[in-house]
Sequence to fold (67 residues):
Amino acid sequence: MPDAQGNFVWLPTGDRTVAAAAAFEEAGIIVRAFPPEGIRISIGEHEAVETLLETARSLVGDLQVAD
Fold:
């Protein structure tokens, strides 16, 4: 079986989509916002994964989980 080749993740950010997208873009992570549902985050290099995780950690406390 071939290795997965996907290079993006989905983050359901709800009403905070625009703010979350801005935070990722400021950190140098390419995102595509789909307000008010969430953002698609593209990752190209392995080095960008740590930046993605750090930025997501800083945002997660402010995000509301949809019921």
